[in-house]
Write a structure and sequence with these properties.
With about 190 residues, the chain is of the alpha+beta class. Helices cover about 25% and strands about 20% of the residues. The protein has 5 helices and 8 strands; from the N terminus they run E-E-H-E-E-E-H-E-E-E-H-H-H. Helix 1 packs across helix 5. The longest helix has 12 residues. The radius of gyration is 17 Å and the shape is globular.
Length: about 190
Amino acid sequence: LLYFEAERWRRIQVPGGYTFWDLHVAIQDSMGWQDRHLHVFRLIRKGYRKTVSIGIPTEETAKYVMPDWEVPLSERLDEPGAEMIYEYDFGDGWEHKVLLEAVMLKEEGAVYPKCVGGERACPPEDCGGPPGYEELLEILGDPDDERHGEYMEWLSGIAKDNRPFDPERFDPAGVVFDNPKKRWRAAFERY
């Protein structure tokens, strides 16, 4: 699968038996986000006018959002070229185009999911969406901006690897994928 948001993109390979929840977790992990907000996948099938929404249903959305942990990827992404939108953090409004590039045989000895490519760091959680991220980059690029020190301190507190935030840095080999079933239990079993 290939998915991207502007110049920040990731190419990941996931097992064929994955659900949309599992893909959500893989996207979060490959981007470096911390899964703090709601998400939804939106699919428009060829020949249909209606959008299919797959995510975490709430009381308000239960009629039209299918639970992503119940929907296998193979049920909705069935051929190369299939596309969908992954929206994360409805307040910030991050939208990613997801494209199924290929269906491949499992490589012997390979562990999936795996990140096989990408560019640039993921925007930090809660930075204000695309406009907020652009403002953040401007502030970081101007040490004389009165907010520069405050933003640098904020970013140092959220870095997973204790490195300063570098919007250009991304290493596919450094992506660590969480177990989606464990993440689901942590998110939902208490309810």
